[in-house]
Amino acid sequence: MNPLKFLSTAKPQTKITKDCFYSLIQPIYGQTCWQIRLGYGQELCLEIGKKIPYHSPALSGEFKGEWQLGTRASDWTIYKKRHPAVRNSDSLMKSSDHEKLIKQKIAKINGQKIYEIEVIDFQEVDFSYYLFDFGLYNLIIPDQKIEDDLPLWELFMPNNQILEVYPNFEFQLHSQDEIA
Q1: 16-28 pLDDT, tens digit each
Q2: Which residues contact 59 (CB under 8 A, 6 or more apart)?
Q3: Looking at 1-76, which runs of residues are DSSP E strands?
Q4: pLDDT grade, residue 80 (50/70/90)?
């Protein structure tokens, strides 16, 4: 018996299709990333859209994004585009870089709008990734094969839903109220 009633950490069972994934994320297009920071274990945390004040008195004066994007158990790279209309780019930073270097460069994303989130799948070479287009910068998260049940990235949405993205293009959608 579990007297504290912790919820299971297993993946929720509401799976969605790739088409549903694209329709869910479409409203984030054109929203501004007003804060990007480095979290625990080189995880990226992006606050996007309207600034929403926290309800807790302990967080008085603090804000969260209407949309919150976070990498989880995944590598990532941010590229500076040579031109906003092309994909050719130069690596600016990656998750394996030294924390101090990342913190120096990461603020360049602040103030950038998110134009698109795209699933790129090169089946012939068995390589896939998620591309987040921020105009002058691209955030790339590869579709990695990981050993645990953590999502590669997750998106907290304004409708109190969480979109979790797992390896092999598995998408899970559930209410924020289901999280312990």
Answers
A1: 888 899 999 999 9
A2: none
A3: 15-16, 32-38, 44-53, 63-71
A4: confident
Rounded Cα distance, 64 and 34, in Å: 10
Q: How many Å apart are CA 18 and CA 65, to the nearest integer?
A: 25
Q: How far is the C-alpha of 81 from the C-alpha of 97, rounded, in Å?
A: 19
- Rounded CA gap, 121 and 130, in Å? 9
Alpha-helix runs per DSSP H in the chain: 18-25, 99-105
Q: Which residues pair with 121 in a beta bridge?
A: 128
State the pLDDT at residue 3.
36
| Residue at 37: amino acid letter | R
As a whole number of angstroms, the distance between CA 46 and CA 65 comes to 8
> pTM of the entire structure?
0.83
Give the mean model confidence (pLDDT) for residues 81-102.
76
Cα dist from 48 to 26, 37, 65, 171, whole Å:
13, 12, 5, 21
Give the Cα separation of 108 and 47 in Å (integer).
14
